[in-house]
Here is the input.
Amino acid sequence: MARNGLRADSQNLRGTSENLSERESSSIGSDSEINGFTTEKQTDKYGFIGGAQQHTEESAQDVPPEVVRQREVKWLDMLNSWDKWMAKRHKKLCSENHYKHKTLNASENHQVQQIRAQDVPPEVVREREVKWLDMLNSWDKWMAKRHKKIKLRCQKGIPPSLRGRAWLYLSGGKVKLEQNHGKFQELDSKPGDPKWLDVIEKDLHRQFPFHEMFVSRGGHGQQDLYRVLKAYTLYRPEEGYCQAQAPIAAVLLMHMPAEEAFWGLVQICEKYLPGYYSAGLEAIQLDGEILFALLRRISTVAYKHLKKHKIDPVLYMTEWFMCAFSRTLPWASVLRVWDMFFCEGVKIIFRVGLVLLKNMLGSSDKLKVCQGLYETMELLRTVEPRYMQEGFLMREIIELQVSERDIEKEHLVQLKRWKETHGELRCKSPPRMHGARAIMIADPPTHKDLLQAPTIIVEPPLEDASSKQKKKGKNKREPPSNPTTETLSPAHPPSPTLQKDTPLQQSNQSLSSSSTEQDTYL
Amino acid sequence: MDFSWNYRFGIIILGDSFVGKSSLLQRYTEGMFDKSRQSPLGIDFKVKHLEFEPGILIKLLLWDTAGQERFKSISRSYMRNSVGCLLVFDLTKRQTFERLRDWYNEVIDYVKPSKMVFILIGHKCDLEEEQEVSKEEAERLAKELGITHYVEASAKDNLNVDSAFESLTMEIYELFHAGRIPIREGWYGLSVGVPVDLYNPDEPKTEKSGCC
Here is the structure.
């Protein structure tokens, strides 16, 4: 909230002076300018060091000057005939007030801030955490009977402290992990094919280099990224490594330990986006055609423009789709998109693409200045921040009427066309699963698969000072065979290990813990 | 709208992963070097204007490609809309040099019957001690493939980057004026001062049937 307040102030001063606390995030224009800042190591709440991705979000608050001028004229007009406007066109006034205007008065500014609030108030976060813990602890029941509620809660945004665990449950990665115990460790201990390792190694330092986890060469983030990507090439040797998998794995690693991130990656590559990373990249090209076909109904103007200039969809959508927008959107939006993507599947990715195309190319005014392939590409490469801003984008995605059925229908049409022009698909991918529910139905878990193994184990203070067990037990996994991990009840006296988060023993207290490290792995 | 150019050349940059294609391009178009830059996925492009002779403005459209084998199916379709190609290898990685012949043949096959003007670039010449390919050897290969220029460059130290791009542009310009680059209907690698309908790649349908 305080951040919002500061931001509001500096908004009004923008152009004359800049609030110091904003300097870092607003003055950085491009990745390479960051060098001077890295020593300070001030990260935003997502772990980015004055990062480029956050920059876009901050500047999303800026309404372009032309628009501000227009609105000023409108408002002057309204204020000059205030009684009439209030009596007859009150609705209009409200809409100007609610969604758009930012500069004329302070109370209005406050309202805008509330609507655009990126920071959910802490009480609400706490409430949501309780709800999510409840869901996660009876996940099979919730998925079977109250799936709609889960979907709605994903749309509202998963609380950050539980995001990693929720993604793993939604994707079915949790079930995979439980059903393949020891698999990751086995892969992890193997040497790997040098052909892939060489490429992976060179890619490590290029993934989110402004995130604190990945900033240092050979640091724990880069090491884990290496392990996860290497394990995948051993898990699917026929697939190997695709460079677009690295950003996906990196985003997962920001939210969960390596083993879980590995299974999350497996689910994305095999259930959500099958074939995207396979040799030949047919699946992504096919989805490009599907996206383009869907655009026709969503925005005829944009569709016609792209058609007229013969702009092949792979030109603008390859990175969008292959990275699930993680390299495109401001970070707050990336996380919200992924929350929904894990729940509802690839249609969310299509919707984001359609929303961006619709807004960027959807009016003939905008197209006047981009008469050609290169001009259009330039425009699509630098999407206006306001269209990617969390609140705006989420509203648009949720409202856009594009269903799984639409995508599947178009898939058949485009597949037929593809076969006519290219011949049979060379890479036979498994069928795409549209979201958490479809995955769960296809791969039903046992209740045991969904039990949360403790990831944080606190050693009780030992009176015997000579004991060597002084190290903290963080991240130490209890062997699954140990019965105490599953049956600990609050009344039970502390046995050799005390878990902070077993299915029966989570509490609000552990949730409100200020340690982000612990929160992340809850 | 940009009405000002006299010629527009499409230029594609090819070579194995990590030879430094994007770095060369970034150095040339933005004047900087960033070793942690993200690798392009699919295809990317940059624009640069060159005033060649006084009053002659050339617009370069530079296609950057992902080097990984599996991205070829995407970058391939853009070979056809280029008149020039920077073929890049890493001086410190012998296998990237040995792959050049394959790259070359693939391009020639793919763009037939259009003309493609190549320049060979031995990249990372700043790493003098680690070089695995000699200048003589690279020049020999260039000669054998009929490539006029071989340049050793470094995006990191800004050595020969501008001159590499300029040599290629100059060669295209001269070949065109000697009548050696015919402009055919439906080919957009080289355009002469038609300022309106910018760069229309050729029919995607016919193009795709040939790829993959």
User: Anything to note?
Assistant: Residues 205 and 211 of chain B are 10 Å apart (CA to CA).
